[in-house]
Each structure stands twice: as structure tokens, then as C-alpha cells.
Amino acid sequence: MKYQTPTALAALITLVAAEVPQEHSHEKYLVAVNQLLAQDNPFNIQDAVFGLLGNAAAAAGAGDVKNLDCLHQVTADSAFSAAKAAGDVDGQASALVFRALERNTGSVGLKSVLCDEAATNPEIAALSQHQDPASDGAAEENKAITLELARQLALIGADPLLALESGTFEPGDVNDATGAGNTCDDLDDPEGCIFTKGLLVEDATPEEIEAAVSEVTGGAGGNTGNAGNGTASNSTGVASQFRFRARRSARSVKLTGISDKLRRGPGNAGNSGVAAGTNDNSSSNDGNLSDNSDENVNDQNASSGASNRPFEVNGATFQNAGAALQRSCAVQHNACANAANSGSADISVADCDAQEDDCLAAASLRKLRRSSGFNTGAGRMRIATRAVKSRQAGDLDFGQCQDPSIQFVEGLDGRKEASFGPAGDFNHGSALNINIVSSFICGQLQSRCKANEAAVSACEQGQADAQGLDGADAADAFNSALGV
Fold first, then answer.
1. What is the pLDDT of residues 189-237, one digit of tens each?
2. What is the domain extent for residue 131?
3. Is 343 left (phi over 0), alpha (psi -120 to 50) or beta?
4. Do 197 and 61 share a domain, yes or no?
5. Residue (of 55, 51, 127, 139) closest to 93 by Cα position
6. Does residue 365 lie in a domain region?
7. In 174-283, where do the E strands start and end?
């Protein structure tokens, strides 16, 4: 849904004498914010795009906002409030990223004016917009904005690596009278041309994001305060839909040598007797399009040797076959999609989606697609259809999610060292601090998954149990509390 009213289009025409427009470069976040404004728009703002324009053009769509220097902030603040009222963590994340986007200015190297009013939501108040990368001190300033955005994303239970998507372009030439800079602007690109054209300049490394987030997630309690106050909007899932894409733009993922084939012994399907392979003789998930319904699920006998977690995929172990099979199909899909997006293979992401459907169908599983206005393959939820069974220490109902377990293995997101990351159906980057991942999972269990109180309490207990432990011991302590 795009507001793009005649008033908005007319306002854009006035920009030709200024810096070349770039207000649609991060289009997916404008769309997400507009969808939130459609739920609650107390200032009658006509379109989120006006918040990214200079004041002269912004006046045409500012609604009841009088201080045009603050239109960007008020737009984000209103969207965040709407998402918070709906219990929509993804919507809140989109509003936060939108607040940090660069506003258009009159020339290359000219900074935009900061808002001098206080936002209603402290999460929005903690942020300001990116500045023109050619302006004085922009590199340091924009990096600080990105790191603060990561902290705020982590505090609401969203993936802090999304902060990298708020970045802007390479610096332009301040002496260029055309004002061209190094920008792009495409109203017809639903994701945003800065992403599809590979023009995004990230302000920080994943390790710097992790260090910044650890400053606010050091305690065991996590953050689940945004959950339980409504049902998440189905139309604002853009933030979670692009999580995998955010991580792919931040890190190179090795596509070859990924051995995650799950081996199934014949005759054992009825009692979940799926034995995980040792992976020594399995073919690699190198991103090639193939009929992995036969490759990932076959009739070879092997065993991981762990009786309590007998199923293994790419170094991660699972208690039930459904979660392991789902993970195996997902890893192959991600490798395939990476190859498609990088252009290293003559395939499309749609081909990879179809391949994953075949893989899951062969294992009697299916994808549960998050309802959204976008139908891309990135960041979809993929879980098994089988019902979640009772876990230890009572009936732990994970709601719409199946596997909140954490793994500690080498090679996650291209890391050489071992790190923590979700082993199941939670989309989050890897981290050296387990609390970054566990805080996200516990927050998502309550807000997105709609898990029961016992499951959320068990997750928080797992966070506490993992504190002070290292490596696999920390992951095992967290997983044991949840019975996974």
C-alpha cells in the first residue's frame, strides 16, 4: 500500500533544484510506517515520505504537525505508538529504523536540522536521523545513531542487526552542482533501491552492534514488556521479513561445504526415530537448485550418538525430528537464496522457495508463512505442522513457534569462532553473548509466538540459568529449562 497522493507527488517535483531525491531508497520502511499510520494517525500525516523531505516539500503533507523540523520524528513516534498498542514488535522495529533514516537536504554535504521537541516514546526519543555522508563528522555521527538504534531494537525484542539497514549511501561530491550524490530513488521498488542495487553503506560491523547491544541486555530478565497488549498487525511484518537479508548484507556467508543433510533410518518415521547423520559422506548445501527432497531426507542409517537429542543438523542437535528436518530444509534454502541474490547461480529466490517446499513436503512438513503485505522469500517462518507436545516441567506451549532452542557452533553467519544462534524457527543473527540471543527469543515467544505463561517463564529461567556459563554449557542450560 502506497499513499503517494497527488499532493505527495507534487511535493516531490519541487526537489529538482535541490539534492537528487532519495526518500524512497528505503521503501519497505516507508510502506510499513504508512500501514501503521493507517491504524492510528493522530496528526493526520498524509504519507510517511513527507518526513524524509525538506521542509518546503514536507509542508504539503504534514497534516497537523506545525514544527516541520520534527515531522520525521512525529511520523515515527505515531507509527511506533500504533505498533506498540497492537503488540506488534515488527512494526515497532520498522518505526525505529524509519526514524534513523536520512532526510533530504538542499545540497550534497548539507546536514538536516534536528528536531528540538521530545518524542512521546523514549525509544524514538533516543534516536535522530542519519546525516548526509558527505557532511562534516557524518561517519562518526551516523555510526553512533546506528549503534543506538541497535540498542533500542534489542530492548523491544527485535533483531539489532536491522540497525545496519538504516545506513545511507557513499559520500557524494560537495562540489557537484547537480546535487546528484551517490543516491537512488525508485517508487516502484517495494524493498528499496538502496538494498536491491547494493548501495547501502553500513555504519558499523556486526561485532560492534553486538558490543553495543550487550550494554543494555546484560541482565537475565530480557525484555518482554511489549508483549501481551494486543495482536500483532499482519501488515507490518517488513522488519522480520528482511532479517535474513539484513544479515546477508552485513556478512558474507560461506556457501560451499555446508553439510547439513539429515539422515533418516527406514521404518522409524512413526516413532520419530530420525537419526541424524554424521555428515561425513553427505553432499554439501552449496546453493545449487536441486531436488533436495531426496537429498535431505533419505533412507541411510546413521546416528549422532546423543540419546536425549538424537537429531543433528549442521552441528546443531534437536530433540524432535520435525524441528531437525525443518532446519535442514531451511539451511539449504538459505544457501540457495544467497546464490540467487549474489548472482553466482542462474536461479531466482522463487526457485529456492519451490525447492524448500519440495524438501518440506518430503518430510511431511510445511512452511507457515507470516501474513504480510510482502510476498518475498526472506525471513519467512518455517515450522513443522505437527503439534507441539508437552515439554518437561509442565505443559510449555510455544504458540505459533516450535523450537526456541539455542545452538553454540562454529560457522554461524560466516564466523570462524563458535557463537550462539537460534537453532530453530527464530530469525536472529549470531552472537558471542548468549543473552543477546536468549533475550530476543524470550521476547518473541510472548509477543510474536503467543506462547503461554509457563513457556515464557521457562525461557526467562533459562536466561538466568545460562548466566555465568560458557559455550555449549550455557546453551544447554537455556535449552534444558525449555525442554528442547
1. 889 999 999 999 999 999 999 899 987 765 333 333 333 333 333 333 4
2. 27-217
3. left
4. yes
5. 127
6. yes
7. 262-263
